[in-house]
Design brief:
The chain is an alpha/beta fold. It folds into 2 domains: 157 residues, Type I PLP-dependent aspartate aminotransferase-like (Major domain) (Aspartate Aminotransferase, domain 2), CATH 3.40.640; 108 residues, Aspartate Aminotransferase, domain 1 (Alpha-Beta Complex). Strands 1-2-3-4 form a 4-stranded mixed sheet. A 3-stranded antiparallel sheet has the order 5-9-8, with helices on one face. The chain has a two-stranded antiparallel ribbon with strand order 6-7. Helix 7 runs parallel beside helix 9. The longest helix has 23 residues. It is globular, with a radius of gyration of 20 Å. The protein starts with 5 loop residues before the first helix and ends with a helix. It holds the Pfam family Aminotran_1_2. Keywords: Aminotransferase, Pyridoxal phosphate, Transferase. This is Aminotransferase. GO terms for molecular function: pyridoxal phosphate binding; transaminase activity.
Length: 278
Amino acid sequence: MPYWVSYPEQIRLAGATPVYIYLEFEKELKIDTEELKRVIHPEKTKAIILNTPHNPTGGVLSRGELEKIAAIVEDLPILVISDEIYEEFIYEVPHVSFASLGENLYRKTLTVNGVSKTYGMTGWRIGYAGGPEEIIQAMIRLQSHSTSCASSISQMAALAALNLHKQEVKKRIEEFSYRRKLVKEGLKKIRGIKVNKPLGAFYIFPDFTNFLGTSYGKRQIKNSLDLANYLLDEAGVAVVPGSAFGLEGYLRISYAVAIDQIKEGLEKIKKALDKLRS
C-alpha cells in the first residue's frame, strides 16, 4: 500500500486474495524487499504486481531495486505483472522494464501498458500487454467473449500515436518535469506537509497526517477523505484521499494541469490549511 484502486478488485474478480506490502514514507514509499520475502507464500502466491512509475506516489524503482526483487522471484513459480503505463513520464532517472532484466524474468513477466498516459488518450480505451504466450492467448479468449475488441477508430488513433516522433513525447515530458518541480517546491513551503520526491508519473503523494484531528468551525478533519472534501469545498481544489489507495493520511495531487492552475491551486491549498486549528 498504496496501490492503484483497481488492483485489489481485479485480484478478487480472478478468485484470488490480495496481499499487501506497506510502503513507508521514511523508505521513500518504495518496496521493502525483506517485507516482500515475508509475504510470499511458496505454495499460495501466484503473482505479484509491480507498478513503476507508480500511481499514486510517483515513485520509480531503480535497476538495483528491481534486481533485488528479481533475485527473490526468479526461481519461484510466480508471475510478475509489471504495470508500466507511465514509462515515459520519468524524471532524473531512467525507466527500467522488469522483463529486460534477464531471459528467465522475460519469460515470467506480463508487461502491461497503453496509450492513455503518454499520448493523453484516456478516453480511447486502448491498452496492450506482452508476456508468456499461454497467458496472452487466455487473455485473447476472455476478451473475445466480453468486449470482442477495441473499436477500429481507437486502434487507428493509437497506431498514429505510437508512430509519433519521440521528440514530441520528449517535449511533453519536459513540460511535466517543470510542473513537478513547481508542485514539489510549492508544497514544501506549506508548514505541516511532508513531501515525497516523485520521480515519475504526474502525481505527488504528500503526507498530510499533521492536519488530521484539526477543525475549521464545526468541520472536523478526522481522515484524508475529510481533508479532501474540505479542500474541495473551501479551496475549490480537487485531490484524491490516500484512503482510496489504501493509505490513510495522504493526498494524491495531480499536476496534469496548466501551470497557472498549479500556482493558483497551491495558493488556495495553503490558505485553506492555514484556517485549520488543532
